[in-house]
Structure formats: C-alpha cells, structure tokens
Amino acid sequence: MNLIKNNENVKNVTILGDQTHLEGHFQSDGTVMIQGEYHGSIDSQIVIITRHGHLKAFIRSKNLEIWGTLDGFARSEKVICRNTSQIKGIIMSNGIAIEPGTTFGGGLTFPQTGDSDEK
C-alpha cells in the first residue's frame, strides 16, 4: 500500500526535495513528502519519508509511511515501515506494519483506547 497512490482525495502535496535541508515547524492539512533532510516538527494528515529522506523530528499525523530514516518521535494513527526504513526513535500508533528488512533501533508504544488524539 502506497499512501499517496491509494488516497484518492489528495489535494495538497508538499515535497521537500532531495537536495533540501530544512529546520522548523511545518503544518499542513495535506500530504508532506520528505526526500531531503528535515529537523523540527511536522503536523500533517499524511507524512511520507522517501528512501533518501531523513527526519530528525516530532511528527503528528494520521498516516505515516517510512522508506528512509526517522530519528525522533512519531504519533500517527497508522504507520508503515518499508523494508528500506531505519527507525531510530519512538513510534506511537494504533496500527503499525513493519516489513522485513526494516532496521529498528527505537521503540513502539500503543495508546490505550480513548487515549489517541491524532488528526
């Protein structure tokens, strides 16, 4: 499942290109695709970290798909860790799929029922 292909209602897509390094806070009601390097926080409906993308950030999203590196904290309703992903942080999610090949050096936590405040 690729989040961007399966989401028929994709309206706003923001792409951080592969040669880009950015720091700060980013907020969006759409999709954020990270191909470069981002440090800070992201609050968005869908976050996709591509194969060469590197996030050192706090993420809050409805859906998170990781092909690259996540070094930080993610709170998402649904998470997909692809076989090329490297997780160096903590993921809090109601549902997570981890493909074989994922490098996982972090932690997983599952919120109790009623304890979720994702978008």
Task: Describe the overall structure.
The structure is a single chain. The model has no long low-confidence stretch (mean pLDDT 88). Helix content is 3%, strand content 57%. The chain has 119 residues and is mainly β. The protein contains one helix and eleven strands; from the N terminus they run αβββββββββββ.
Task: Provide keyphrases for this structure.
single chain; 119 residues; mainly beta; eleven-stranded parallel sheet; 11 strands; 57% strand
Quick recap:
By secondary structure, the chain is mostly beta strands. The protein has one helix spanning 3-6, and strands at residues 13-16, 21-27, 31-34, 37-49, 54-66, 69-70, 73-81, 86-87, 90-98, 103-104, 107-109.
Element-by-element helix/strand order = HEEEEEEEEEEE
Helix content: under 10%
How many structural domains?
Answer: 1
What's the pLDDT, averaged over the residues?
A: 88
What general form does the structure show? globular
The fraction of residues in strands falls at over 45%
Structural class comes to mainly beta
Main beta sheet, described? 11 strands, parallel
Radius of gyration: 13 Å
Question: What are the segments in which pLDDT stays under 50 over at least 5 consecutive residues?
Answer: none
Count of helical regions: 1
Please give the alpha-carbon distance between the first and last residues.
20 Å
Q: How many β-strand runs?
A: 11
Topology readout:
Layout: H1 3-6, E1 13-16, E2 21-27, E3 31-34, E4 37-49, E5 54-66, E6 69-70, E7 73-81, E8 86-87, E9 90-98, E10 103-104, E11 107-109
Parallel strand pairs: 1-3, 2-4, 3-4, 4-5, 5-6, 5-7, 6-8, 7-9, 8-10, 9-11
